[in-house]
Amino acid sequence: MLKVGLTGSIAVGKSFVCDEFRRLGCRVLDADRTARQVVAAGTDGLAEIKKQFGTEVIAENGELDRAKMASIIFADPEKRSLLNSIIHPRVIAAQNEWLRTTAAADPDGIAIVDAALMIESGGYRRFDKLIVVWCEAAIQLKRLMLRDNLPESSAKTRIAAQMSQDEKKGYADYLIDTSGGFESTRELVLNVYKELTSIKQA
Predict the structure, then answer these.
(1) Which of 75, 94, 146, 161 has the most CB atoms at less than 10 Å from its CB?
(2) For the chain, how big is the Rg over CA atoms in Å?
(3) If we measure between CA atoms, which residue out of 105, 135, 102, 132 comes closest to residue 120?
(4) Are 141 and 155 in contact (CB under 8 A)?
(5) Is 100 helix (H, G, I), strand (E, B) or coil?
(6) 18, 114 contact by CB (below 8 A)
(7) pTM of the entire predicted model
(8) Domains of the chain (ranges plus CATH)?
(9) CA-CA distance, 62 to 64, in Å (whole number)?
(10) Angle, to 10 degrees, between the axis of helix 182-201 and the axis of helix 14-23?
């Protein structure tokens, strides 16, 4: 099984790219879903967050209040690092388990793990190839403002809190630029898929 990491900064179109790889027959693990699972109500991950951040980040239904947590961590690098230290080991463990079961079920397939902080955490080293999804900075800013209903200043703060797109691109085996919209992105995904397939068959 070919193990592929997929990453990119906030609001660059990773979800659409993952959906396209899925449509082409790849097995894809969604980063957001994994991150939600490891801090779901009743998990030790959420218990640790509650211990470190207090009850103010827990919603009435017992789940993590993501909006409240985001407002805290994007304003405070130390608290962001603390949250990452809680979430990342659990996410990586869940990813590794998924890779094991996927390899057993589809040994000749392509498994893609999507994770926003894959480079920062060092998790990208576990993969045979790394795809970095990116887009032009002005487009990223506009997408984030629209997606999360944020003012420009808040969106810029969130973007600045992450490793720059240019730096991430330096780690990539393959780059997918989503700036041109859905159709051009589909074509780029297909090209990368063909490359991955040829590697797998070699």
Answers:
(1) 94
(2) 17
(3) 132
(4) yes
(5) helix
(6) yes
(7) 0.90
(8) 2-201 (3.40.50.300)
(9) 7
(10) 50
Question: Which tokens is 100 given?
Answer: 């094991």
Give tens-digit pLDDT for 56-70: 999 999 999 999 999
Contacts 24+ apart (CB under 8 A), 190-199: 190/20, 190/24, 192/131, 193/21, 193/24, 193/26, 193/110, 196/2, 196/4, 196/26, 196/110, 196/129, 197/110, 199/2, 199/128, 199/129
Q: In the sheet that 129-134 helps form, which strands lie side by side, from edge to edge? A: 27-29, 110-114, 2-8, 129-134, 174-177
Tokens for 9?
A: 């900064």
Q: What is the largest CA-CA distance in the chain?
A: 53
Bridge-based pairing of strands 129-134 and 174-177 is parallel
Tokens standing for 68?
């409240």
Q: In one letter, which amino acid is 174?
A: Y
What are the two backbone dihedrals, phi and then psi, of residue 107, each rounded to the nearest 5 degrees?
Answer: -60, -20
Q: What is the pLDDT of residue 119?
A: 95
| Residue 97: half-sphere exposure toward Cβ, Cα within 13 Å | 8
Residue 42: helix, strand or coil by DSSP?
coil
The answer, yes or no, to whether residue 202 has pLDDT greater than 70, is no
Quickly tell me which residue has 């961590």 as its tokens: 73
